[in-house]
Design brief:
Layout: H1 14-31, E1 60-64, E2 69-71, E3 74-76, H2 78-90, E4 99-104, H3 110-122, E5 126-129
Parallel strand pairs: 1-4, 4-5
Antiparallel strand pairs: 1-2, 2-3
């Protein structure tokens, strides 16, 4: 014997699904508020091509590796770097002479970069970032 069943399920109206989707999108946008990364504000100098006339006005170059600091081609421990950068920047009077070009390798942790740039700024240096230079190969 078969029992006769009545259909109890009711299909929701199609317009309700678009309303629900819209509400979910708004919910996720409000909940996922984007906070900017906090860092140190940097004043980057304008690059103007001027010939270097004397050794005194030559910029300091600092290269960061994972565990070391290389200043003008010489690897230095962090403590020695602090003393050296303070001495090098102390005898420079003009703001243009206090430019320090910082080049960082890809594997350098952000905390190490922040520490070293903080030391340079505390010593009175003006930081400029040096990007990797593209090497071109000529094929003959």
């Amino acid at each position: 014997m078969k029992l006769k069943r009545t259909k109890l399920l009711v299909e929701p109206p199609a317009s309700a699904t678009s309303d629900i989707a819209f509400i979910l999108i708004v919910f996720f946008l409000v909940c996922a508020s984007v906070e900017p990364d906090k860092g140190r504000a940097q004043t980057l100098p304008r690059s103007e091509p001027e010939p270097q006339k004397d050794k005194q006005s030559q910029n300091i170059e600092v290269e960061l590796t994972r565990d070391a600091v290389i200043m003008n081609g010489n690897p230095l421990p962090k403590e020695t770097f602090v003393k050296t950068i303070i001495l090098k920047l102390a005898d420079k009077a003009r703001e243009e002479d206090k430019i320090v070009a910082v080049k960082s390798r890809k594997e350098v942790p952000y905390s190490h970069w922040m520490d070293i740039t903080g030391i340079i700024e505390d010593a009175g240096g003006v930081i400029t970032l040096q990007l990797e230079e593209e090497q071109t190969v000529q094929v003959q």
